[in-house]
Amino acid sequence: MHPLAQANTQPLPLPQVDWRAIAPELALAVAGVVLLLVVAFWPRASRNLLAGLTLAGLAVAGALTAWNWGLERVAFDGAVSLDGITRYARAILLAAGALATLMIAQGDTREGEPDDSPPEVFPLLLFALLGMVLLAAASDLLVVFIALEILSLSLYVLAGETRRLAAQEAAMKYFLLGAFASAFLLYGIALCYGATGSTNLLAIARATGDPTGDGTLLLAGVGLLAVGFLFKVSAVPFHMWTPDVYQGTPTPVTAFMAAATKVAAFAVFLRVFAGALGGLVVSWRPVIAAVAVVTMLVGAALAVVQTDIKRMLAYSSISHAGYLLVGLAAAATVPAGISASMFYLLVYAFMVMGAFMVVQYVSRLGPPDDDAIRERSSLDDYRGLARHHPWAAGLLAVFMLALTGIPPLSGFWAKYYVFLSGIQAGLTWLVVVAVISSVISAFFYLRVLVVAYLQEPVGDAASSPSAGRTPALGLALGLAGLLTVAIGLAPEALIAAARSAERILG
Amino acid sequence: MLLTLTLFAPLAGALLVALVPAARQESARLVALVASLATLALAVALASRFRTGEAGFQLGQTAEWVPAFGVSYKVGVDGVSLPLVLLTAVLTPLAVAGSWRMTERPRSYLALLLVLETAMLGVFVSLDLFLFYIFWEAVLVPAYFLIGSFGGPRRVYAAVKFFVYTLGGGLLMLVGIIALFWLHQKATGTPSFDYQTLLDFDKAPTTQRWLFAAFFAAFAVKTPLWPFHTWLPDAYTEAPTTTTVLLAGVMSKLGVYGFLRYAVPLFPDAARWAQPFLLTLAVIGILYCALVATVQRDFKTLVAYSSVSHLGFIVLGIFALNVQGLQGGVFYMVAHGLVIGGLFFVTGMLEERRGTRRIEDFGGLQQAVPRMAGVMLVITLGSVALPGLVGFVGEFLTLLGAFLAHRVYAVLATGGVILGAVYLLWAYQRMWQGPLEREENRAIGDLSGREWAILAPLVAAIIVLGLFPRPVLDRVEPSAQRVVEQTQAQSP
Predict the structure, then answer these.
(1) Does the pLDDT at position B492 exceed 50?
(2) How many domains is chain B built from?
(3) Could you give the ipTM of this predicted complex?
(4) Contact, B239 vs B147, CB < 8 A?
């Protein structure tokens, strides 16, 4: 009998409930709802209180993640799996969420500013995180879809949280293209279900080894799944939305999007492709490798010509997605590919969030910015930054050099580990392309430093105190900088933890 | 332990310099001078403990760093690296003293100089390929900021060009290092970047060629070998004088040291295979850059090209792949460091006095500043390898080595010796001799006490090592001998 028909005849099975397995998700959901109620019924609640509540929710979720650390099991009849990827991604995501909360906490102290975001950002942030954390644990394509929608819908709203036109435009663009990609993904899920009779990754993994199955249908489904995921990680040629959305979106949300979305999307990408579809590696690896090549090169090359730092960072994040795809291409045959990618995501999250924190700091230099269209983020605003804001410039240098991959900063080890996994998988040519892309990327990262350190300040904007100099942002910057340097000097423990993420359950 | 202290003393000094309060910027230079002199003292103590006649690594230290990747902190010196460590330790305090009158952001400048010293020392003493790579890339950052923040009018262009060129070469080497590491792990099952382990590991000849090519990319750019030299004249010319002294005096040795320490012994078959190619590049570099130097109008650029030309001799000596050549190469590295440092120091002193470096703006300086002219004569003659001065020993030995290996290259390279004499002596003649025509040249002052303190050690070393090269050569020889054996050990 055709598997589809077979599936239809069976009664809908009720999954075994396993509260502990999804405890962090539950904590985030509860915290999100509580904050939503607080915002709704007590509109005058101070931002500090809301941020504090958000952080408390994150802390509880973090504690629950730690409680579940040693747990390795498949829950809800294979819909959710707790394994290395899950816990590693959860830890990164919660940390990124905490940093983003700090960035939003004291959004803009000046009342009526265009950057004055509504208090709803806190619950939305928590819901987005809920989607991300669930996505990292999902081992059923339907759960993948649900989680992806939770995070995407929250992010669409977050992207348009301020009153600037560019933010509105970014939100709309992100929503339309994101919906498009979701449709691709859903279609891919349907085709995979049609080919294998299940949406469960474990069952799909078994079916890929079955020679009697419908190979063409499955491959078509895999192709569409890949399109959906490649959109989320903004790989070329599905990257068009990235620069516009990154530029228009309020900086704290951009930072969160750049770091956390990538973590969640790559976690599920790894789980589905390197895990469930590992048997089809000969079919998808050439495609992923080819996408990696264009992603690395196009991202780096287009970043060189940007004059806006947020767009530059957007293109740079595209090229970083390319490096991660190298890890993914390696991951199906070499376990180090998984741990290398996870470690890369960890390091990248802190580097890129740190870079955006400096962007936020600098965008609030000078007179009140009442530009109705977009935030100040031109490279010209960084002229002579080092002269009057040595700390901001120093941290900027740390993040830029780490993103370039200069030892002994954290980005270097991440890049190294991904390159190593590529060579182990016999993809040396791909690693050489990655090296070329790294060299190109040195141009634009250095250019920021050239502007900040080597050029003279223009006007008095750079010399004025930053309204963004809030204790919360300072704390966030300090943490990101410290982690970037400390992981660079002593990466051992985190690499070892990443190694434990190599085994994928179901 | 002593070596580790020597290695990190400048870095600690840099931190102290950075912590000097802004109100007392002047004391930063004192802190920097003390730190660099302390490093020198440690390096001298290190040299005094060095056992002459031993070929292997001594005075080392090993510690785990990232065991997951097989990366360890492992350092040590042998006869090849010790002279270079000393050279670095000698030139840095002189560079600090040379920057004494700097007014613009002296703290950052001096701190960066000291960071650069640690990074360069690290390259010389690392015995773990990964550690080596880290120091190799770490050199870039301070050098980039030194050129880019404090250099001449085209400094940003020069700094970015330098950075991107070198990073490109370095990353290709990283691919080579990872590939070598992975081959070793596949063959033996243990992850290791240890120099000795990877040295003993047998590599197939074709693999060697690929890996050699990857290492070649980094070293050829850094040295630089013709035609990878185009970043150098820009970087040397635009960098502030005391940075140029360290770049030309020490950093240019990193590339040739890389060939000698890594590319040749790790891949002996490939090295022999590539020998004619490298000798050809070296000879082209020697002759071409000598010709280009001849027509320069800016004395600093002239010296920069002369540096490329002279480094060609070092490569020639190393790729002669015999004891004479290698020994000469190492000696020449030291000699070149001293001489080129002197040349750039004098250039800087002239620029400070006159605000120009163009050869035609000078003339007859001998009459105005006789002492400076005398010192400059010694340095120039040291550079053109007058017998009895330091340059001669290195040049003679490298040419001898090349002659024993491949006669024709030695003969061609000798042409470079002649051209070297032509452009340097001609420039000397135009700048220092003849009638003192320009009024503004008459008024310039002779060497000050501080300038004497900078130049006197260099001049003394140029003369003493020229007359008595044995102490250096004796220490280099066993290690050079060992490299030659390693190169021939796997001969078919």
Answers:
(1) no
(2) 1
(3) 0.74
(4) yes
